[in-house]
Amino acid sequence: RILSKATTSSSILQHQYSYRIYCYAEDDWVLQAQSSGVSPSYSAPSSPNGVSLLSAVGLRDAIGTQTTLDESPPSFTHLVIQDPTAANNQISVTFALNEPGTAYCRATRQDSGETASDMTINRILSAGWSSTWTSSTATIRINALENTVL
Fold it and tell me: Are 54 and 89 in contact (CB under 8 A)?
């Protein structure tokens, strides 16, 4: 027997989490019977015809486990720029993220005339400086305005 639960609140689905999906269906037999012509042998049905729990489990198995998408961007949990006087030809950016991912950087000269409004995500990506983070920290070492060795 499938039980129903009336609640006033629920937990939201978590991103990148696996779920099993159970579905239940019932027909409108009660409504259909009541709106049909009443015959002398008519007795009102007590409940609609519903699928069995076995059918619901079968559907769950056919659907399989479903994983929600990761719709939240990563955030930096650690971000440090090495003292620029430590090396006169390199800028080192050490970082960590709250989930596995890749960070990208671009250096622009202060006297270039570029402003924050000139910078787009594509310009940062096209510089070619990146590093993948999975645990601990990762470092991006920038030694030119654009990475020509990709």
Answer: no
How far is Cα 40 from Cα 138, in angstroms, rounded to an integer? 81
Q: How many other C-beta atoms are found inside a 10 Å radius of the C-beta of residue 57?
A: 12
User: Rounded distance, CA 73 to CA 54, Å?
Assistant: 40
Pairwise pLDDT comparison (131 vs 24), residue with the higher score:
131
Distance of CA 81 to the CA centre of its chain: 29
Separation of alpha carbons 139 and 130, rounded Å: 9
Cα–Cα dist 2/142, whole Å: 60
Burial of 17 (0-12, 13-18, 19+ CB in 10 A): exposed
More confident residue, 69 or 77: 77
Q: Quick check: pTM over 0.85?
A: no
Vertex 48: Cα angle to 45 and 56 (nearest 5):
150
The predicted-structure confidence for 90-105, as pLDDT tens digits, reads as follows 999 999 999 999 999 9
Residue 138 in 3-state DSSP?
Answer: strand
Integer Cα distance of 127 and 16 in angstroms: 30
